[in-house]
Amino acid sequence: MYRAKQCKWLMTLSALLFSSLFFSNLALAGWSDVNMTQGVTEISREVYDLHMFMFAVCVLIGIVVFGVMIVSMLLHRKSLGAQPANFHEHTGLEIFWTIVPIVILVVLAIPATSTLRAMYDAGDSDIDIEVRGFQWKWQYTYLNDNPGEEVKFISALKTPQEEIHNQANKREHYLLDVDNPLVIPINKRIRFLITSNDVIHAFWVPAFAVKKDAIPGFVHESWAVVEEPGIYRGQCAELCGKDHGFMPIVVRAVPQDEYDTWLAEKQEEARQVYETVGKQWTMAELMETGEQVYNQTCLTCHQANGQGIPPAFPSLVGQGLTVGPIENHIDIVLNGKSGTAMQAFGAQLNPAQIAAVVTYERNTWGNAMGDMVQPSKVNEMIQSGQ
Amino acid sequence: MPSEDTYESYYVPHNSMLPIFASLGIFLTVYGVGNMLNEAKAGIDSSFGMLVFLTGGLLLGGTLFAWFSKVIAENHAKMYSDQMNRSYVWGMSWFIFSEVMFFSAFFGALFYVRMFVVDWIGGEGDRGPSGMLWPDYTPAWPMLETPDPSRFPGPHEVMSPWGLPLINTVLLVTSSFTVTIAHHGIKEGNRQKLNLWLALTIALGVVFLFVQAYEYYHAYTELGLTLSSGIYGTTFFMLTGFHGAHVTLGTFMLAVMMGRALKGHFDAEDCFGFEAAAWYWHFVDVVWLGLFIFVYVLGG
Amino acid sequence: MSAVIEEHHDDHHHGPDKGILRWVFTTNHKDIGTLYLWFSFLMFLTGGCMAMVIRAELFQPGLQIVQPEFFNQMTTMHGLIMVFGAVMPAFVGLANWLVPMMIGAPDMALPRMNNYSFWILPFAFSMMLSSLFMEGGAPNFGWTFYAPLSTEYAPPSVTFFIFAVHLMGISSIMGSINVVVTILNLRAPGMRLMQMPLFVWTWLITAYLLIAVMPVLAGVVTMMLMDIHFGTAFFSAGGGGDPVLFQHVFWFFGHPEVYIMILPAFGVVSAIIPTFARKRLFGYDSMVYATASIAFLSFIVWAHHMFTVGIPIAGELYFMYATMLIAVPTGVKVFNWVATMWRGSMSFETPMLFAIAFVILFTIGGFSGLMLAIVPADFQYHDTYFVVAHFHYVLVPGSVFSIMAAAYYWLPKWTGNMYDESLGKTHFWLSFIGVNVTFFPQHFVGLAGMPRRIPDYALQFADYNMISSMGAFLFGFSQLLFLFIVIKCIRGGKKATSQVWEGAHGLEWTIPSPAPYHTFSTPPEDLREAHG
Ligand code: HEA
Ligand code: HEA
Ligand code: CUA
Ligand SMILES: [Cu+2]
Q1: Which ipTM value was assigned to this complex?
Q2: Ligand 2 centroid – CA C50 distance (Å)
Q3: How far apart are CA C209 and CA C300, in angstroms?
Q4: DSSP C419-433
Q5: pLDDT at residue number C484
Q6: pTM of the prediction?
Q7: Of C31, C57, C107, C378, which one is the catalytic site residue?
Q8: Range(s) of the domain holding residue A365
Q9: Ranges of chain C with pLDDT below 70
Q10: CA–centroid distance for C248 within its chain
Q11: Among the three residues A215, A238, A270, which one is the final residue of a domain in this structure?
């Protein structure tokens, strides 16, 4: 009786196994949220095909191997009176099941090699974009021989804290939305020059089959030719500290003319910023801009109330540099402190923004230094190489 | 393959208090060092770390002393069979193998940096146009100018192999011969030969250490070559430093053997303690030859 | 001196000390094996509780239970504790219990050092766990602790983490030296190497791997220590170093490490399947060669964990081909197990159930490993839950199932009592279902694009994460049943015979159950039983 029950169990088990293999196969062919994306580049489709091919091979081998096991579990059981056979070695068989896998592996290696070669074949690019990882946001620079026209901006998570902390409903693209997406034209060869300012990050856009680590001090290349306009979302794919889960990548691929308009607009903006740095700012203007910058850039670490999360992230209220000599305060924001999470924001913010945020920090949360910084002063400090 | 008669008397020791004290000792030692380092880094002035470290160090040292004394005593009491001794032989050999692997990690780091990284940072080779981040840097080895001199000020000069390092090579290679002669002394039952040549070996080891200490002094004060002078200084001091630490340990082991020899230990049949120390010494010597070639001659 | 001699005299005739001191001072391989096994089980529960925190946080999108800083600490500590605290010590415990009994040796070759190897571990892990309460929190940079996140950007507790790793390394190296020396030097007279049970073979090779790579791990953490406290430039480009150097050295250790966690499991399964198939192991010789080939290959494939760091194409191709090759000897092992079962006379007691589940689920994990080895595809898989699914398939229903199989298989020998078979079977089925419900859906979310090591995720991953978390709670709770079964078995039960299992072969089955405190004080004469 007991044995019979066990037999049933085994049947169920094998049925389960087979059906799970079978269904997952079906599922993988159809549903995009359980399978790798096919993507929108030639390379990404090749990768997808490679993935499906390998998967099929594994399923087949699985069916054979597990099939033999299950048959023998069903038939060769003591409860059915099976007598053990005597064989325990067979050189021919051993050779056979060494050779067959090798052959299968060679068959897998051939398409893998050719796809990899295609990926590494960088060719001449149409647009070069430097992608720089920061804790915990991305900076994109459209490399341009004329430094005045260089478009450069930071792209950070847009999802509000309330959604993350379950105080508001999570909207579409939760955690996958940024303030300034990367914009690229379709059908152009875009070269990404990937690096990092602090720890290792990884730039990953599944739809392009591009994943490359951003390593401080080194630059690595990757490229993509996107064939369809659309919005493609990815994430940082290397543990980079506290907010690793909160540094998404959004790429907007647009037709060439739309791209041109966008770029022209951005270049105009850059010129404007350049001009504002020259003018005299009022305290109110500085405080307003300062608050914006703070909330966008500094809040993750130093928190909304300026109290930070000691000891990792110090408080800016009533102590330290914020209430000390103003030069030191500007200096740490401009140049950061190496070896800590406090980065050199001179690379990300323009002088007006830095002047504003420093002014803001000195005159809020009960800090009442009463002084302010003009962008020109910050610019001076930059020029003098401080 | 073990043979019938030796197996019979394999010595399984009685319960022992030594291991638990050694565990506690080694734990306190590293816990103390950890506290010292963190206190120093945070600028806290406290002697807690030091206190724990000293306690642990003494406990560990004392326990190991008791442990080795006990093994020697057991050996003298003829409680060990040949097979038991073979266990020690095997044990020591595998220990030396693990040390070899430890050094390979650092040699590997040196080769990797020299052969690849320097060029990559300079913008050459296969790992992308990293040079764009370091426009002022030109790749060269030895690396006198680091990519970021404000954080890692490079050395003015590096160590020439043909001065002190050559002397040290001669010292160490000679010492490998002298220790072998001392071993022959044991085999021949010539105690005077043993004592003399062993003493000479130890002296060579000590002189080596002094020369190296002087070399370091020279590097720090005159060449600007320090641990933090970039990757050249890093690999130089880590490799030679760990080697120096091993020479120190080896010298200490030989000194213990000297003490035992003077007490009349060792004879042609029974001298594994001595042999273990000698093997270790040869190992240290071979590592030095690697260092001399790859760090000093080819690296300088 | 005379005192020593007296001690020697009562050696073989006397049993253990009484009370707690028996465990602290013991030099007996069986006591030490027991210590290792209990310690590893404790660590398994600790690491498992951390996994439960992870799974509870990931039950739904949004931050519910823990903050991201703490989540990262949980992931890191979970990985470290499971690898270094649970799986490795469990296998060392099995080696301690079984190797001397299988080769007819009186004890381990260096018994006092054996005790030392064990007792370092509780200190090391206390130090590591205590970092959870330190200022700045515990290590939060993943079990792979990539620089510079683990150096310049690490919390102060990293110093203690480094020293804890040093201690574990010392313990493992001494433990492995002991195993190697015991096997090479203490076999019963007449026992040839090619006559040793496979468990002994796999451990010989594992111990060799350990002695080769633990010092490299010690080296890499030493480099970190120097970078953190002494201004060296190993991992800073500014000084001419390279963060990727860290990864090369780490994975030169790390890849062999994963085979360290699976080879002894192969040995266990190779002991159990023949017993319950009542048929000799198929292809003994090829099993030995396959194990050795896997060990050899494991040294030359490390960069398959680093395909996305920007290795030159020649390197990528080489590491891809070399990695794929590992499927060949591993396949040989799987086929040999299947051939052993073929036309046997099988019965399905708990150890056999775990062993069969091992073969199937490990193979599934191996398949996903092979997919990861294909570089272009790995660009999509790397650092996603697909990798998490891969390694949990090889580690949980792989290594951990084999450890449980071993526990059920040898418990009667260790305790003298049979465990409760129907509870055992319940434990198996709960675990089997739990493990698959937990880790199978992780393939899907990984492929769909969910990165690993994140405390919160986009909405499209919600369903499968919830399923996975429920599976994890089921699997977790089932392990309490295991604890209960083991304790029950120690306290009593049907008395076991010496042979215990009808089809069992091997020297350990020739001695009474429970195995007496000292076995093989004189070598066994009849070696016909030696290998299965
Ligand atoms: C017990 C532990 C264990 C074992 C045994 C394995 C086995 C294998 N692993 Fe796995 N692996 C890990 C533990 C393990 N792994 C861990 C912990 C990580 C992640 C580390 C981290 O980043 O945190 C990892 C990550 C990992 C990666 C990196 C993924 C990434 O980060 O991008 C890769 C890539 O190649 C890989 C490959 C393989 C391969 C090819 C095998 C092979 O050995 C598998 C061979 C087995 C089979 C193939 C099945 C049986 C064979 C047959 C039935 C024969 C016929 C088959 C064919 C011809 C296909 N593993
Ligand atoms: C041998 C190794 C091993 C083992 C056994 C396990 C076991 C488990 N692991 Fe883990 N895991 C790793 C090795 C291992 N893991 C590694 C190396 C990583 C990578 C870390 C990194 O990224 O750095 C990882 C990462 C990892 C992640 C990814 C985390 C991330 O990327 O952020 C997840 C998520 O689901 C996970 C889950 C689990 C679960 C649910 C179990 C379960 O099997 C555990 C079950 C056990 C118990 C639950 C304990 C026993 C039960 C009790 C004590 C009763 C109380 C129980 C309840 C309250 C339910 N593990
Ligand atoms: Cu940036 Cu993860
Ligand atoms: Cu690997």
Answers
A1: 0.90
A2: 7
A3: 13
A4: --HHHHHHHHHHHHH
A5: 97
A6: 0.90
A7: C107
A8: 277-383
A9: 1-15, 528-532
A10: 22
A11: A270
